[in-house]
Structures are given as C-alpha cells and as structure tokens.
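Q: I'm building a small set of examples for a reading group on sequence design. Run inverse folding on the following structure and report the sequence directly after it, with nothing in between.
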C-alpha cells in the first residue's frame, strides 16, 4: 500500500522501483492485455553505438524476440504482433534487406521446436509472397507446423503496411457489393474487420514502441483506435522481460474509457 502511494506521489506511472519478482506478481494479479503490438525499433542504433554493423543489431533483436515470446506466453497473453519488416524497409541497403530476409530462416532452425512445444500458433500479416523463395518457405513452414496450436498467437508483420491493408479491404468490400453479396448500407466496422489481415484477432490493447520514436509508422492504423500507446527510450536489443512487464504494469494502472467519462 505504502509502495502504491509512493508511486502515485512520484509520477503518474511507476519508474521501475519494483524487483522483477514483484513486477511479475503484480502483472499476474491484474487483467492481462489480450493483444499486444510491438514496433521493434533501434537495432541499427544499438549496433552503431558498439561500432558493429547494423546486421549485428538485427541478430541481437531476434534474441529479444525469443525472450518476448516466452514472457508473453508465461503470463497468458492471447496474441502478440511483432512489426518485423515494413513495406518501406525494402528501401534499405541491399545487404541489410538480404540479412533481414534470412532471419526467419535462422529462427526456424533455432526456435520452431520450442514454439511447437509451447503450443504457439505462428501467423504472418503482410505479403509474404513478395519475399525471397527461401524466406517464403520458412514463413509457410512456421504457419503449417503450428496451425492447429491453441496457445499464444504469434503474428509477424512482414512486408506489412497498414494503408495497403486498408486499401485491400476496400477493394474486397467493393467486390462484395458489386457481386450483390451485401448492400452499401450494410458496411459497418464488423465488415471492415472481416477484410483486414487481423480478422479473428481482438484489437490490440497495448502498442509498445522502443527507441524513443513516438510514431505509429503505418502499423495497424484501423485496429489501434482505442489502444494504449507505450513508448520507451530503450533500443529494441535492450528491451527484455523486465521492460515488457513494466509496460504491462503501466497499462494496468492507466484507465481506459473508450471515449466515455
Ligand atoms: C526480424 C529481428 C527482430 C527485430 C526487428 C527486425 C529484425 C524474427 C523474425 C521472424 C519472422 C517470421 C518468422 C520467424 C521469425 C524476423 C524479420 C526481421 C524480417 F516466422 N526476427 N525478425 N523477421 N528482426
């Protein structure tokens, strides 16, 4: 109780004076966000600070992906969506893009078995067909080998852009109207939801972005209408279990009103 009051006096949000054990207990004793989105920013900057190539930052970032999956699974999150590669990322240097496209293949070798053991279902959001053949095969293998799993839903947004996703939904809905399947007046939020790549998933309760940037960058624009946004200066390769649970702790201590008072 005293701890709680001290925290209120300090600031609106905790500054991380709980130990990891206390934090985990607090988080587990409160409602867990059902769906959490991650914008995994800062790998390049992390590498630069150490005089390493940007690719070293991406490799370190992949290790944190593993830690976040385990941490989410262990507290019973229903779904996480990781923004791994945007449609804009093709503009990066060729070597960097080639390296990024190899990461799912590496991840397949190192982590598929653990994901199966954890009953995790892996899905892709985005045009995976436009990735190199070997990457595409790895992405499909993840999906196929985990499709009947009933635990944590793990979405990788690869070659994803939210405006593209919305445009595609608009085209599909127009087709439905033209085919006489629905009337224009019947188009509502539910119809739109059914045509987005996230169909079947709850909207994200919480979006986490690392690396100090306070932008959404074309990630799940429709779906985040009521999401809590949480930003940290930490670079993605430094973002581990403790920071993740701190974000959930802060989420649990904010009040969400969906526009009401
Ligand atoms: C990527 C590592 C994490 C930091 C952000 C960018 C770099 C894991 C995957 C992955 C994707 C699909 C899959 C299994 C693993 C990945 C890309 C980049 C393109 F089925 N990390 N990671 N994919 N980074």
């Amino acid at each position: 109780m005293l701890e709680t009051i001290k925290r209120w006096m300090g600031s609106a949000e905790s500054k991380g004076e709980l130990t990891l054990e206390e934090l985990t207990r607090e988080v587990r004793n409160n409602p867990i966000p059902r769906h959490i989105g991650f914008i995994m920013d800062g790998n390049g900057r992390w590498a630069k600070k150490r005089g390493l190539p940007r690719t070293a930052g991406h490799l370190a970032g992949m290790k944190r992906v593993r830690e976040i999956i385990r941490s989410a699974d262990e507290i019973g999150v229903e779904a996480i969506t990781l923004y791994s590669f945007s449609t804009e990322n093709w503009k990066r240097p060729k070597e960097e893009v080639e390296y990024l496209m190899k990461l799912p293949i590496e991840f397949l070798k190192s982590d598929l078995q653990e994901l199966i053991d954890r009953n995790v279902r892996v899905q892709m959001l985005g045009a995976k067909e436009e990735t190199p053949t070997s990457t595409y095969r790895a992405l499909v293998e993840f999906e196929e080998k985990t499709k009947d799993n009933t635990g944590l839903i793990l979405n990788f947004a690869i070659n994803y852009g939210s405006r593209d996703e919305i445009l595609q939904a608009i085209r599909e809905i127009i087709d439905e109207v033209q085919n006489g399947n629905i009337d224009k007046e019947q188009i509502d939020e539910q119809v739109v939801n059914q045509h987005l790549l996230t169909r079947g998933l709850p909207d994200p309760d919480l979006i986490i972005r690392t690396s100090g940037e306070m932008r959404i960058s074309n990630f799940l624009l429709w779906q985040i209408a009521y999401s809590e946004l949480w930003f940290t200066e930490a670079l993605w390769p430094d973002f581990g279990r403790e920071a993740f649970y701190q974000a959930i702790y802060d989420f649990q201590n904010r009040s969400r009103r969906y526009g009401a008072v």
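The mean pLDDT is 94.
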